[in-house]
Amino acid sequence: MSRKSWDGVELMAALRSGADRLEARVAEVNALNVFPVPDGDTGTNMLATLKAAIAEGEVTLATGVTSIDEVSEAVARGALLGARGNSGVLLSQILRGLPQAVRGRKRARAAEIANALSIGVLHAYSAVATPTEGTILTVAREVASSALADAEGSTELRPFLLRVAESARISVEKTPMLLAVLREAGVVDSGGTGLQLILEGIADVPSVAPSATLDDAEPARSAHVPTPALPLPTAGGDGAPGEYGYETVFILRATEAPLDLVKIRADLERIGESVLVAGDASVCKVHVHNLQPDQILAYGIAHGDVRGVTIENLDQQSAERATGHGAFTDLSTRVGVASATPEKGPEPGTAIVAVAAGSGLAAIMKSAGASQLVHGGQTENPSAAEIATAINATGRRDVIVFPNNGNIVLAARQAADLVAANVTVVPTRNAAEGIAALLTWDPSLPLDVALKQFETARVGARTFRIVQAVRDAVVKGVSVRNGEVMALDPVDGIVATGQDEIEALTRALQGERAELITLYLGADVDAAAGERMAEAARGVVRGVEVELARGEQPIERVLVSLE
Q: Which one of 179, 196, 227 terminates a domain?
């Protein structure tokens, strides 16, 4: 027999089991990399994120707290802070649904676990500007849908969790049918596989044992809540019992079409109360009371980019006010990096935080105006907490973050939600893009003008990186052999290949026009090799000036910037 419900102790045992299963096969998850470059770190990032969540939960258990609501809040807080890479950030958002589904409870049954997955999926989708199907998002959504459908009749947790894990396996197997690059590479999605392994470990947790007294201590809640069939919202459902329900607040930004505030307000008034919609056609703030916060979030996601989500249990707040206990607040406002937070709060002014993979790149960014640097890059993604610490260390009210790697952008945005400063993330995809933007920095400019200049420079930068292929592959119709050298554009399209750096570089420069080419040399490229590449570049692009700079970055043999 298995338990009918979990408290915080059993939740932690399940999460440890999930982490153990992922760790045992982390190399396998990392190897599911579409691109033949040594940056397959999806499994590593997910494992680091989950371990950070577990560590925070263990701290709470050590104080003698065992209720599911307090332990799960600690778990979610640890995941938000420890999230690394895009896959880790999405996992942390999925875990973020847990405390919101079990608030006020000592134990959780299948219904609460299903609700937690549902709310977590909505958070995960809202974290991505343009969700891509065939990824961990799809797997999480289909798992949540299956769990919601199954939870109503589930009395024992283990059979329910085994079915949840099986739904993840089925969803992962379908990912190549949904995403062409997976199909072309002959692999399934790595993030989805990582989630599958975690759920399999959770289902196989060895410490589950029957305990009728504890399991019957609390009544079950209905699992009949809207299935998150994103992006279309659904209606109906019993929701959580209570007089007030939940308060859901978020920022909604227009994406493809302008926001129709009148229609949004009318639609939300049909599914909630105390509706406030304030803003304009590009961005607005939404405030709604109802029994089903996931329904409100699904509506927002269907109409634009949802950020800054907070969900409050109004019934619990009312009870806590009556008893003198402080109400729970949303994790995004509770989480902070206290050791680096200025005592007097952020001061007026603007500062820049930049992520750099090598000492040379760090020195260049520092000289260009970055006040705080975070170590990280290809295969070394910093956590949201590390970025948040650097943001706080600036001591400034306005902070601009250059992640300088596509797999760090989500962590930077998550860090922005964890601090008091007004943070803008400029989504630079490599260090050369970041330096091109930083070189336009003028501290005397107003923030909005500086941001426009940064974005113009980032978008206008022509950059590519030269790396060595670590396996045979076909990427977007271009074949590459293990050991060949590739020139990759900022979205990992293969621009050219060659037997060495010079051949790949000269082929990539064919037909290009530029006044200046900057070569940022990697840690394994000596000065003589750099001079040979510079001379080869001059031979291809007539009259161009070529500058050599020591980047000292690993993995990327050379970063190339054309102006």
A: 227
